[in-house]
């Protein structure tokens, strides 16, 4: 009678993938619904294993990763059967797209590597700007105006105050 064997990685992810929706901002650790952005791992081995988590990130405009225990700077030792929730930190203030597809890598001291997909969905802010002209100097045409954001909080705003019209001729 043939025997069947099942190979189990010594350390593995609890979930098969993650899909987080987050706002546009700095040092985010929660989704737009308030749930924590955590990656869950488990030691299925009979001995303790040291693990490290990292994100394979090809995007220059998205900053994210793990800090403290479980990060590339600080391994975490998982006892047999122990689970660990690693908080993910995300910085989306410079993002240029709405969806980022990445992978999370789990590695232990034995060299075992596991990967799962990770999607980060950046909820774009609702922009509603209002400009009010407060005064105009009739001699110099220097204008003082107030720009008010009536929409969502913006992490970055570039403003170009130039005019294509000029009544100046060659001097």
Helices and strands, in order, run as EEEEEEEEEEE
What spatial form do the alpha-carbon principal axes imply? elongated
Q: Looking at this structure, what is the CATH superfamily of the domain at 11-122?
A: Immunoglobulins
The mean pLDDT is 86
Count of DSSP strands: 11
Strand content: 35-45%
- How is the main sheet built? 5 strands, mixed
Which characteristics define this entry?
4-stranded antiparallel β-sheet, elongated, 171 residues, mainly beta
Polypeptide structure, described:
It contains no helices and eleven strands. With 171 residues, the protein is mainly β. The protein has a domain at 11-122: Immunoglobulin-like, CATH 2.60.40.10. A five-stranded mixed sheet has the order 2-9-8-4-6, with no helix packed on it. The chain has a four-stranded antiparallel sheet with strand order 1-3-7-5, with no helix packed on it. A two-stranded antiparallel sheet has the order 10-11. A hairpin with a 4-residue loop joins strand 8 and strand 9 (113-122). The N and C termini lie far apart (101 Å).
Task: Furnish the topology, listing elements before pairings.
Elements: E1 11-13, E2 18-22, E3 38-43, E4 49-56, E5 63-66, E6 76-78, E7 83-91, E8 99-108, E9 113-122, E10 129-136, E11 143-149
Parallel strand pairs: 2-9
Antiparallel strand pairs: 1-3, 3-7, 4-6, 4-8, 5-7, 8-9, 10-11
